[in-house]
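WP5 quarterly update. Target: Epsilon-lactone hydrolase. Source organism: Fusarium solani. Length: 324 aa.
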Amino acid sequence: MDSPLTLWEKFDLVLGLASVLSSGAWSALSGGLRGENAPSSYRHHLINRVTRAFLIRFSLRQHRYLETGFEEEYVKWCKANSLTPDLVTTSAGLKGFWVGDRSSRNIIINYHGGGFVMDGSVSYLSFWSSIQHHLSDRRVDAAFFFPCYRLAPENPHPAQYQDAVEALRYVINDLKRSPSDIILAGDSSGGNLALAVLSHVSGHELPYCPKLTIEQPLKAMALISPAVSFDLDKWPSVRRNSNRDYLVPDLIQNWNEAWLSGTPVSEAFEPCRYPSSWWKNAMVKQTLVVAASDELELDSIASWVETFQVESIPSSNTQGIEID
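Structure tokens (predicted):
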């Protein structure tokens, strides 16, 4: 945040929190009358309405004021779980941290979501830690590296792509790990970053990122609701699910504008723009994509997956990825 909040902005936080609580109370009372276009379960209806109210009500400056910061959340999470923090600053200045032993057989680089403007939270750590425990129960050795990439609007496009590429460079070059040990993962805008990195090392270099060459494919890629299109008007699911998703088109548009900061959207990495031939030599062995039936960007994700499958995924591909 470039400057401290004004007195009015701080006072407005109190008003905003009251507004969010009121929205939650009303949603709880009216949930039984939500109709067919709302989330199917009462629980999801309530969570979506409160989350939506919280995201919409406050400015990005206010959100930044309320955020602890991903790195700080990680340190507190480690303390709560009796773990020793493993913080990193790379030679290029990228900050990040590890969950698990960085010498593990499988390395998962996880790019958090948040529209390039919102930071990671403790919920990410809890979720991916549960995945790590699940893998451990199956005797799969894995560690997670979380890049704390720079956020907009303080650091607009293309800072996020530069940091995403730097995360992979760090693991391969500094830690001397083989691409065949590495899985790229990300949700929403983090999924966009993972795809941009894959494209960058597959012969389609991002002009604003340092060159990074890998001699063999990455082990896998796991994407949760990846942001693959910035043209929201194009996809029917944006209208169909406008009352089911906790995000709304106007909020996404505002985040995109803050992120691009005047840069033409054509300069951003938008996977849906590229033909199937773009992915012909994609340097990844396995890919898992997960999307929800009620999300705004379902149709864009489905369209991209269909394109991606033509060249990069064998017809015998299963509904998951295999990690040994």
